[in-house]
Amino acid sequence: RRARGKARGLRWNVAGLRRKDEDFWRGLERWDVMVLIERWVEKKAQEWVKGKLPRGYVWKMQEAKRRNKKERAMRGMMMGIRKELAE
Predict the structure, then answer these.
(1) Quick one: CATH architecture of 9-85?
(2) What is the pLDDT of residue 50?
(3) Which of 20, 52, 70, 85 is surrounded by the fewest CB atoms within 10 Å?
(4) Which superkingdom (predicted)?
(5) Residues 42, 74: contact at Cβ < 8 Å?
(6) 1 pLDDT exceeds 60?
(7) pLDDT tens digits, residue range 15-65?
(8) Cα–Cα distance for residue pair 56/61, rounded to 1 Å
């Protein structure tokens, strides 16, 4: 439990969420606020990612977008804040 007014935050360009092991996902629980940047998190991958994210947080996702069908998706990100802090 953190002292009032103190929160630990993380901003990370994750690069390869699908390759992360269970230790990675469990390790996220030590942070109070997180911004995880992953370019490929398009709408179709969001359900898989949601199943991996730690419980006890309010999560918001910004899906990656493509300008055209041939281009790689860009600007995907997940933002999480511990529920006690979000209230």
Answers:
(1) 2-Layer Sandwich (3.30)
(2) 81
(3) 70
(4) Eukaryota
(5) no
(6) no
(7) 887 788 999 999 999 999 999 887 776 666 777 888 888 999 999 888 777
(8) 16
User: Which residues contact residue 80 at a Cβ distance below 8 angstroms, ignoring those fewer than 6 apart?
Assistant: 28, 33, 34, 36, 53, 54, 57, 58, 59, 60
Considering only residues 47 and 74, tell me which one the structure prediction assigns the higher pLDDT: 47
DSSP for 15-80, please give it. Answer: S-GGG--HHHHHHGGG-SEEEEE-TT--GGGHHHHHHHSPSSEEEEEE--B-SSTTSPPB--EEEE
Query: Whole-model pTM?
Result: 0.74
> Is the CB of residue 64 less than 8 Å from the CB of residue 39?
yes
